[in-house]
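User: I'll paste a sequence; please echo it back and then give the predicted structure.

Assistant: Echoing your sequence first, then the prediction.
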Amino acid sequence: MPSPILKLARLNGQPEIFYSIQGEGKSMGMPAVFVRSSLCNLHCIWCDTDYTWNWTGTRFEHRHDVCPGYRKFDKKKWIAGLPVEAVAALVAEIPCRNIVLTGGEPMLQQEALVALIRRLRQISPGYRFEVETNGTLLPLPEFDQAVDQYNVSPKLENSNNPRKLREKPVACRFFAQSPKAYFKFVVAEKNDLEEVLELKQRYALLPEKIMLMPEGSTRQLLARRRRWIVEVCKANGFYYTDRLQVQIWGSKKGV
């Protein structure tokens, strides 16, 4: 049987697989190998990986639209289709067993990712897998069984996605009840908190599983928003998470 094909993001002409530290969420600071899938079912206006979905000819808005020289991305040039065996071989060369499956939206490719997880665990049973997801897709049973941790980032109104796309109740309820799931909300303004609290109540989210993270791709913007977001976390029993990759490297990709 042929190996399933994974559609990965392409960066600097290569599939985007890199060794760094987890910059956000529950595992912040942990060394990790990132495998970035292409394709997404949402289109966040502030997305910093817009080369995974903002294709030439689409109508989606992005904050970079006003930047001189910004162009939407040629889908054929920005997707690397690799057999699972080839992806596993690239990952296995890196001396780290904590893998972050990110995107885009990786859960659009669950069957191929299950094959990747199984292949890597054949190589070494010590592999651990985190999935970064927008929380709109229901995991397949075999996918849920294979994954160690979900980093769920439900999108708020500030993402510019309509509610009918960004909030899927069946998937939200699944993740709310999963012991593997932690929720990271991207917050830009103080009125975003009202939406977070509504979601917390609607899906009975535990405060100790909720993390607030400032939206921003510059150190200056993160610093400005961090000050009041920390106070919100203290008042509500939430966790605060930063964006360490931006603090260390700026808005550079592949780090």
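The CA atoms of residues 176 and 200 lie 9 Å apart. Residues 5-249 form a domain with the TIM Barrel fold (CATH 3.20.20.70).
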